[in-house]
Design goal:
- It is a single chain.
- By secondary structure, this protein is of the alpha/beta class.
- It has a single domain, classed as Alpha/Beta hydrolase fold, catalytic domain (Rossmann fold).
- It is built from six helices and ten strands; from the N terminus they run βββαβααβαββαβββα.
- The strands form two sheets. Strands 1-2-4-3-5-6-7-8 form an eight-stranded mixed sheet, with helices on both faces. A two-stranded antiparallel sheet has the order 9-10.
- Helix 4 links the parallel strand 5 and strand 6.
- The radius of gyration is 16 Å and the shape is globular.
- The two termini are 21 Å apart.
- The mean pLDDT is 98.
Length: 239
């Protein structure tokens, strides 16, 4: 295996974005691609590492960019300001994640019949919204994602399979939102799963998360179990 990484500039209308691509350059045939949507701080080392991990599994990993080339938050207040326009304008969010999907579909070594997307925190919302648009992808995985409905798509028709990986004690997501998402996914006709991890807060996959007062705490077991669940899910999607 020869792990190759590179950045790819692409556009959403007039906004320049930059994704991070990881793949095995010794493989000549087309193969599945997994988009990775970042948390509220922007496309950072965390999602780039996930892209490399996916490449080591035999997939193409593409860490998408929602905010713009080189745009990264410097802390919670800055991160919130970057995320807020997309929370307020979900059509813009859906357009932005859709631009990443359009970009990877143009790559010559991508199997366009085998595409999935995973996301963390804010990125979980991004991939759920991609599914809500009816995008022709095989599946999405939300890791401790925000679960707010997209009011611009009140009755989505979701063809992608959905896996939601959620901390039971996540203060960013109410129990009502969890129930409402399950109802929404059922009404949409989606093939969905929701795994909840006990004694687990928000950002449980991030080893740097250590702020119980804010509600973001790394949980090693939930991190391991959720990543394993994702692997099984992708294997099913791409069989």
């Amino acid at each position: 295996m020869s792990l190759t990484t590179t950045t790819i500039d692409y556009y959403d209308r007039d906004t320049l974005l930059q994704g991070y691509l990881a793949f095995d350059s010794t493989v000549e045939e087309s193969r599945p691609v997994v988009l990775i949507a970042h948390a509220w701080g922007g496309r950072d080392d965390f999602v780039e590492a996930k892209a490399r991990s996916l490449a080591e599994m035999g997939y193409i990993g593409f860490a998408v960019d929602i905010y713009g080339k080189g745009v990264l938050g410097r802390g919670p207040d800055d991160n919130a300001q970057l995320m807020q326009p997309f929370m307020e304008n979900r059509a813009l969010l859906q357009q932005r994640i859709g631009a990443a999907l359009d970009t990877v579909k143009q790559l010559p070594f991508v199997n366009n019949d085998k595409i999935a997307a995973i996301g963390f925190c804010f990125g979980g919302l991004c991939v759920l919204d991609l599914a809500r648009t009816g995008a022709p992808i095989q599946g999405v995985v939300s890791f401790h994602g925000l679960l707010l409905p997209a009011h611009n798509i009140p009755q989505p028709e979701i063809s992608a399979k959905v896996l939601v990986l959620h901390g039971h004690d996540d203060p960013m997501v109410s129990s009502d939102q969890v129930v409402e998402l399950q109802h929404e996914l059922t009404q949409s006709g989606a093939d969905w799963q929701l795994h909840q991890y006990g004694n687990t807060m928000h950002a449980f996959t991030n080893p740097l998360a250590n702020d119980p007062d804010f509600g973001t705490v790394y949980q090693r077991n939930a991190d391991y179990r959720s990543w394993l669940s994702m692997q099984h899910f992708l294997a099913e999607l791409f069989a």
